[in-house]
Design goal:
This protein is mainly alpha-helical and 131 residues long. It is built from six helices and two strands. The longest helix has 18 residues. The chain has a two-stranded antiparallel sheet with strand order 1-2. It starts with 12 loop residues before the first helix and ends with a helix. A hairpin with a 2-residue loop joins strand 1 and strand 2.
Length: 131
Amino acid sequence: MKPNLKDLPRLTPAELEVMKVLWETDGLSAREVHTMVGVPRDWAYSTTRTHIDRLVRKGLVEKASFHGLNVFKPSISRASGLARMVSDFAHQVLGSSPQPVVSLFAETGQLERHEIDELTRLLEASDEREV
């Protein structure tokens, strides 16, 4: 079944910051996420945990136990996480389809080729369903 725009995750700015760190790793403890994301933003450790727990409840992050330590890994790709944001930006700010925004990712090298291909596929599929 093709994804609908409503099926794509909507990340808050804080959740996006947590996801960015998780997408770059093979899994982190909550303390490691806090050190990388929370400390620079002057968050309390409990704030970092709240964001992680919300992402787990949304199904965007999975929690696994590794030698008694909870480790958090993304359960969605970076492209899936960004697709809704790209689509919203394109429609609301640019008044256009998301494809020009995806082209910018390709030109700037911010995403890898397979991520751009996935992002394009997700956005095209969600656009088709909206029509």
